[in-house]
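From the shared-data thread, chain only:
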Amino acid sequence: MANEHPFAQYIRIIGKGPRLSRPLTREEAHDATTMILKGEVDPVQLGAFLCILRVRSEDPQEGAGFIDAVRDDLKLPSSLPSIDLDWPSYAGKARQLPYYLLAALAMAKSGIKIFMHGAAGHTEGRLYTEQSLEALGIDQAKSLEDSAQKLKDGNFAYLPLKQISPVLQEIIDLKATLGVRTPVNTFARMINAFDAPNVMQCITHAAYREIHRDCADLLGQKRMCVFKGEGGEIERRAAKPVNVQYLINGERFDEEWPAVLEAEHAAHDTEMDISRLKDIWAGKDTHPYAISAITGTIAIALRLMDKASNPAQAQEEAEKLWGARNMDKIPYA
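Structure, as tokens:
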């Protein structure tokens, strides 16, 4: 009789059926994730584990344990940069250009240090941050150490997930094999490798709002917000009201932000011409949707960072920040 594989216990806990199964504890999730990261799990086990979690949906304790294990596995530089904002970018854009990237660059040039990280290529027909940065002539970081140096020398760095954790990128890429996304798509956004005090999160489906806030609370995150953004990226849908949910030093509250753009300006972009980003930065392209998406995204970030006391003031400050940019050159290009 074959000996039971050490990972089998975790599949049994979550997969024994509706009456006997239960979520993993934070410690169990940490240990299970550690085995996955070390390559100690059979591919069949990994597929079963991920699909059970997907069907049952994510649990905050499991998410916190997952992040604990990933952080334990990070190859961090000896000297960590002091940054202001952690910005995950994992969805890609299909209906609008990645205006969030111009928002982040404008904020960085204003003095706000931003670490952006993400994944690319897991869903066909989408434009990802990596492609957009290349089009703008901005180099990606090659490692966490390289990211730290870029953030010390300037205020912006983007690092692909495959450089943070190759195993997690491989799991995200399993979507083409499994046919569905896995919990890693949710939890990888929460890594916050450089321990930024402010973290923005974005969701596509409302059911995922609380999992982000619950996990952040368990992880001791000082300031975070989550909202439904365009295409699943951290980008304000300016033609629609948005509910922004916050966790500030353990306190939870919500804010309703009104629409700031007429719906007639928010038609889907059928061309997705990425070269427009340079013209928008230079002030040559002033499409109302683009400008509202950029300033609206900046506004949410400023409000999170306590640089504005309400949405209206945040929007006003965001418009000033965007208007003050150096239009002659794309920053960091």
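The beta strands are 85-89, 114-118, 156-160, 198-203, 223-228, 242-248, 251-257.
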